[in-house]
């Protein structure tokens, strides 16, 4: 498979940037904390196979990575960004405005948004999406009114749950994990509430009123480093963490998943969609940097290799749920040949 040739304008832009600084040898990658361990694994494999410098991979969050990635063309700008959601129309427009006009989009596989807790907690946790919303939403139904969340312990939501304080560590607003959790867990959980179902509220109402996480203590923004959440769960057996399945998968010795609607997060339940909170994972590549930034083409080839992406490949060993054979083949063809993505709607 071959890569698209660079346009004259792209070469010109890179030539201008090169006058300001010496050519860099390392590939630069930013983006999602969830995609980070997968990209880091590919970077290590690439460096081992080729002897080339290992790409520099930074965990900036999906939103932060998009902003940096779309900053422009040239050596001072990153080549790739990882994302735990698809690129937004506003981000695509920012890219276009700054000359990042040709971008390859790669949906590399699927991930579950896991709620996790320490294995030293011996309760058999099984929550509905509605209970998750009532625990973490900024506003909830109170005596027939939509009001600030009064719940402080789990048993106040459901008497079958333990009488322990609600405490969940999760990602900040710049994170794609936060975006996905709000859409897949908070909105869906809000829609399960009798107040919403019986009130005739539509999706626009839910999006406007059920998107905010609590700021009064039970939900704590823990930054973009998911390893810090893992450390906090180790220190507090009643605290829960919200992160991508890969981080739970890598820490199963110390952590266990919280079931949602009776289903444990696992590679199998994420793949068959029985686990209700799953999402696709992406990375994006600047076409203009291909063939100019040393080793970028070869790195993308490694990322698109069967060794990395197939079921049983080294990324699935880290928790990535692989695409079907047909979807993976279509992905490889599009990305390796530099097919440009369409504008998001």
UniProtKB/TrEMBL annotation:
Segments forming a coiled coil: none
Annotated signal sequence range: 1-22
Listed InterPro entries: PBP_domain, Phosphate_ABC_transporter
Gene3D superfamilies named among the record's database cross-references: Periplasmic binding protein-like II
Keyword Signal: yes
Keyword Signal in record: yes
Keywords associated with the record: Signal
Name of the protein: Substrate-binding domain-containing protein
Domain PBP, first and last residues per copy: 17-306
Organism: Sedimentitalea arenosa
């Amino acid at each position: 498979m071959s890569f698209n040739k660079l346009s004259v304008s792209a070469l010109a832009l890179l030539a201008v940037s090169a006058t300001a600084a010496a050519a860099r040898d390392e590939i630069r990658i930013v983006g999602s904390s969830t995609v980070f361990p997968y990209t880091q694994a590919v970077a290590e494999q690439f460096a081992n196979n080729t002897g080339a410098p290992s790409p520099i991979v930074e965990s900036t969050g999906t939103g932060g990575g998009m902003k940096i990635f779309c900053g422009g063309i040239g050596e001072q700008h990153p080549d790739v960004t990882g994302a735990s959601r698809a690129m937004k129309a506003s981000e695509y427009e920012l890219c276009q405005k700054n000359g990042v006009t040709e971008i390859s989009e790669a949906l590399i596989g699927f991930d579950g948004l896991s709620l996790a807790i320490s294995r030293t907690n011996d309760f058999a946790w099984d929550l509905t999406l509605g209970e998750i919303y009532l625990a973490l939403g900024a506003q909830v139904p109170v005596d027939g009114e939509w009001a600030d969340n009064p719940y402080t312990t789990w048993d106040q939501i459901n008497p079958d749950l333990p009488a322990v304080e609600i405490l969940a560590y999760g990602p900040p607003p710049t994170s794609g994990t936060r975006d996905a959790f709000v859409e897949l867990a908070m909105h869906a959980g809000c829609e399960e509430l009798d107040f919403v179902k019986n009130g005739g509220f539509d999706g626009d109402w839910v999006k406007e009123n059920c998107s905010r996480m609590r700021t009064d203590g039970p939900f704590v923004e823990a930054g973009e480093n998911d390893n810090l959440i893992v450390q906090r769960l180790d220190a507090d057996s009643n605290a829960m963490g919200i992160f991508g399945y890969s981080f739970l998968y890598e820490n199963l010795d110390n952590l266990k998943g919280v079931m949602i609607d009776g289903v444990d997060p696992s590679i199998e339940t994420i793949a068959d969609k029985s686990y209700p909170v799953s999402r696709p994972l992406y990375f994006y590549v600047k076409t203009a940097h291909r063939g100019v930034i040393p080793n970028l083409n070869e790195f993308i080839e490694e990322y698109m290799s069967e060794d990395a992406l197939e079921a049983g490949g080294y990324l699935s060993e880290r928790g990535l749920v692989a695409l079907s054979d047909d979807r993976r083949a279509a992905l490889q063809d599009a990305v390796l040949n530099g097919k440009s993505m369409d504008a998001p709607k």
